[in-house]
C-alpha cells in the first residue's frame, strides 16, 4: 500500500505513518511538499477543509499512490468564540474522499488578534512557548494543554476519522442504498 501525504512536516508524517501502519500493516509513506492554496492560517472551516483537500489532491496526483492525505490546521469562529481546528482529507486512487475534523480548542483573543493582523499561528505559538518551530513538534495543542495532548496525537485521531470511510466501507455503502 502506498500513501502520499501532502506535507513535509515531521509531526504530520509521523501521525500518518502511525495510523496507516495500524490499518494496512505494510505501507509506504511518501511525503510531498505541496501548496495548500489557502492562507497560512485559514480563518474558516471551509477554507481549512479546502486546504486539506488541495494537499491530498496534489499528493495523490504527484505520486499516483493508493491514497493521498491532506492535513490542514486553521481557526474557526463557533458560537462567537475562536477555536483552533484541524481537518484531514483522504483521497483514494479511485476518487473516493474521506473527511475528518476535530481538535477544536478555544484560543485566547490576543492570539486570534495577532493572526487576523497577518501573523502565522505557528509564529504566535512560538512566541508564547519561547521556542521556534513548535508546529513541527507539539504545536499549539501542546502549549495550551501543558502537554496533556500534542499535535501528533490529535492529527492521528483526525486522520483516523477521515479513514473511517475506507476502513468501514461496508457501512458507508450500506447507508447509500
What can you see in these coordinates?
- By secondary structure, this protein is an alpha/beta fold.
- The protein has a single domain (2-175), classed as Alpha-Beta Complex (Maf protein).
- Helices cover 46% and strands 24% of the residues.
- The protein has seven helices and five strands, in the order βαβαβββααααα.
- Strands 2-1-3-4-5 form a five-stranded mixed beta sheet.
Condensed summary:
The chain is an alpha/beta fold and 177 residues long.
Share of helix among residues?
Answer: 40-55%
CATH architecture: Alpha-Beta Complex
Structural class by sheet pairing and helices: alpha/beta
H/E topology pattern: EHEHEEEHHHHH
Average pLDDT confidence is 94
* Global geometry: globular
Our Rg estimate from Cα atoms comes to 16 Å
Total of helices: 7
Largest sheet: 5 strands, mixed
Extended strand count: 5
CATH T-level topology = Maf protein
Amino acid at each position: 500500500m502506498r500513501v502520499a501525504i501532502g506535507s513535509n512536516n515531521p509531526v504530520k508524517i509521523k501521525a500518518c505513518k502511525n495510523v496507516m501502519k495500524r490499518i494496512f500493516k505494510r505501507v509506504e509513506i511518501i511525503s510531498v511538499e505541496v501548496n495548500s492554496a489557502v492562507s497560512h492560517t485559514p480563518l474558516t472551516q471551509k477554507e481549512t477543509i479546502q486546504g486539506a483537500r488541495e494537499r491530498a489532491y496534489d499528493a495523490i496526483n504527484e505520486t499516483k499512490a493508493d491514497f493521498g492525505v491532506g492535513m490542514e490546521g486553521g481557526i474557526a469562529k463557533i458560537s462567537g468564540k475562536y477555536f483552533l481546528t484541524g481537518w484531514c482529507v483522504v483521497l483514494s486512487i479511485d476518487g473516493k474522499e474521506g473527511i475528518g475534523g476535530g481538535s477544536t480548542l478555544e484560543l485566547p483573543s490576543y492570539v486570534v488578534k495577532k493572526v487576523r493582523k497577518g501573523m502565522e499561528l505557528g509564529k504566535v505559538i512560538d512566541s508564547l512557548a519561547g521556542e521556534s518551530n513548535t508546529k513541527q513538534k507539539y504545536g499549539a495543542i501542546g502549549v495550551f494543554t501543558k502537554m496533556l495532548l500534542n499535535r501528533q496525537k490529535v492529527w492521528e485521531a483526525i486522520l483516523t476519522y477521515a479513514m473511517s470511510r475506507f476502513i468501514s466501507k461496508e457501512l458507508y455503502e450500506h447507508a447509500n442504498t
